[in-house]
Amino acid sequence: METEKVPIVDFFGHDGVMKSLGTIGAEIYSAFKSAGFVYLKNHGIAAPKIEAAFNVSREFFQLPVIVKQKYARPTDSNEGWVAVERESLNPERPADLKEAFNFSKKENVKNCLPKEVTTFNPVLADLFDEAQQLTFRVLEALDEGMPGNVNVKVKIDNIFTNSHKLIGKPGNATGLRSLYYPALDPEGSIKPGQVRCGEHSDYGSITILFQDDIGGLEVQRVDGMYVPAPPIPGTVLVNVGDLMQRWTADQIKSTKHRVLIPEKELLMRQVRQSIAFFVQPDDNFLITCLDGSNKYEPVSSLDYLNMRFAATY
């Protein structure tokens, strides 16, 4: 990131007319190239749907641990509940002070869905659908607006759109992850160096992030310093994942980010929530460098994801 501000891309121009896909894609690509992150404005997802997802998530996370354990993420699947300190996104730090629920629309994971929160499944499924539609708009825009010097095949083959056809169906690992950062006691047993979410980059093609109004997310600049990426009303954050970096042979890069423990006691004692839509290409799609180079070895989307999961859990 060259400046302290994450760029904002508006789907509409100053005249109130929606921009062309090519224009939007060029602006998103430029933001990705400079910062790895972009705020999207007028993205089309209604605020009440996002708020409803935060509400049902909070209702689940506030259940007793013994109840949540019934829905724990199994070793052979990514769906389900992940307990506090179960993950270490930065292995050089103590485990993260967060819990999560990994949600997908696959038929074979319905047993992972909590029955105690009756609206949990429909509300998160609704946000999944909305995020999926926004994903397709972003990918279509990148197909249209990415410079030809990255690879003319992007424009000819609509490669980003066509490699994500199975989102929400068997054969694609895209998932919605609801994150809950519990309130912390300043006098409690916080370990030296422990944070809410350790420094990491995301695994897939792109991530769409919904934040509450508490803040705390920081993203890394090119000089290694971290700067805040606070919630901006009416926007969502989108960032580059590691597979997209490989795909573009480092033309756009996956930016590390983290969530620290707030220095102010008032904020430390508040719960923080976010919801991430982690976008993956279809499982069997082979990721090869779009410029024709061999900078990164070809790898399937699912093989790469499983490799990264193995290092996290």
Automatic annotation (TrEMBL):
SUPFAM superfamilies: Clavaminate synthase-like
Pfam (any one): DIOX_N
GO terms, molecular function: metal ion binding; oxidoreductase activity
Stored PROSITE patterns: FE2OG_OXY
Superkingdom classification of source: Eukaryota
Residue ranges occupied by any Fe2OG dioxygenase domain in the UniProt entry: 172-281
Alphabetically ordered keywords of this record: Iron, Metal-binding, Oxidoreductase
The keyword Metal-binding is annotated on this UniProt entry: yes
Cell membrane listed as a keyword: no
InterPro entries cross-referenced by the UniProt entry: DIOX_N, IPNS-like_FE2OG_OXY, IPNS-like_sf, Iron_ascorbate_oxido_reductase, Oxoglu/Fe-dep_dioxygenase_dom
Family: Belongs to the iron/ascorbate-dependent oxidoreductase family.
Protein name stated in the entry: UPF0676 protein C1494.01 isoform X1
Species of the source: Lingula anatina (Brachiopod)
Name of the coding gene: LOC106151218
